[in-house]
Amino acid sequence: MRILVIEDEPKVASFIQRALEEESYAVDVCADGADGLDLAKDITYDVVILDLMLPTLSGLAVLKQLRKAKVKTPVIILTARSEVNDRVVGLDAGADDYLTKPFSIEELVARVRARLRQTGNAMDVLQVDDLILNPSTRVVTRGETRIELTTKEYALLEYLMRNAGRVLTRAMITEHVWNLDFDTFTNVIDVYISYLRHKIDHGHDRRLIQTIRGSGYRLQADE
Ligand code: CA
Predict the structure, then answer these.
(1) Distance between CA atoms of residues 217 and 112, nearest Å
(2) How far is CA 202 from its chain centroid?
(3) 65 CA distance to ligand 1 centroid (A)?
(4) Measured distance CA(16)–CA(5) in Å, rounded
(5) I need a surface site. Which of 124, 175, 197, 220 has the fewest CB within 10 A?
(6) Which pLDDT belongs to residue 197?
(7) How far is the centre of ligand 1, averaged over its atoms, from the C-alpha of 69 (Å)?
(8) CA-to-CA distance for 194 and 96, rounded, in angstroms?
(9) Are strands 47-51 and 2-6 parallel, antiparallel or unpaired?
(10) 7 CA distance to ligand 1 centroid (A)?
(11) What's the CA-to-centroid distance between 36 and ligand 1, angstroms?
(12) Three-state secondary structure string covering the chain
């Protein structure tokens, strides 16, 4: 799950980023309206969090242009208390939800979850062979064994499971699980795959994580 935060107040932006990263989302932050619009058009995000007062292009203009470009990504707008009118205009312009500043971070995380639930059955339990991941409780089990994962391992596994049977390139994994700063020339993905392998496949006859030489990785039940 990848989220774009367009917010020019550095403190608010990093606060949101940290909270969402703790939830295992990959988060990109952008402080500028026009740049944010470009990102939201170029990259497939699962949710965009959009401040209204932004440099170069207002949040409302970003939203209108996104919808005009047929980008259907759910957008949650952030408004100041004095911008009640803008909130209404925002919803009219195609925003899916709004939060009034100051908001609690729990509330924001809950709204993001609600958006994800509506778009892609994001809370459905995922199962591949005897490996089960429950997005609502974040519990992962293989057979009878509960598997403890770090935040990044969890995000990687969730992405692999949502795309079970598909070959995922390192570029795809980078885009969905890591954020924009990720340096594709490092072997971070391979390292995390090996961590996951150790936790998920180690000691099992049926190996679920497969390396596709020259391409990437695939999670699949053995036939
Ligand atoms: Ca602002």
Answers:
(1) 28
(2) 28
(3) 18
(4) 8
(5) 124
(6) 96
(7) 23
(8) 39
(9) parallel
(10) 6
(11) 13
(12) CEEEEECCCHHHHHHHHHHHHHCCCEEEEECCHHHHHHHHHHCCCCEEEEECCCCCCCHHHHHHHHHHCCCCCCEEEEECHHHHHHHHHHHHCCCCEEEECCCCHHHHHHHHHHHHHHHHCCCCCEEECCEEEECCCCEEEECCEEECCCHHHHHHHHHHHHCCCCCEEHHHHHHHHCCCCCCCCCCHHHHHHHHHHHHHCCCCCCCCEEEECCCEEEECCCC
Separation between Cα atoms, residue 195 and residue 199, nearest integer Å? 6
C-alpha pair distances (Å), 13 with each of 16, 77, 107, 206: 5, 13, 15, 43
Ligand 1 centre from 12 Cα, in Å?
Answer: 9
- pLDDT tens per residue across span 147-166: 999 988 998 999 999 889 99
39 alpha carbon to ligand 1 midpoint, in Å?
A: 18
Instruction: Please state the pTM of the whole predicted model.
Output: 0.70
Question: pLDDT-based confidence at 180, cuts 50/70/90?
Answer: low
100 bridge partner residues: 79
Give 15: exposed, middle or buried? Use CB within 10 Å, 0-12, 13-18, 19+: middle
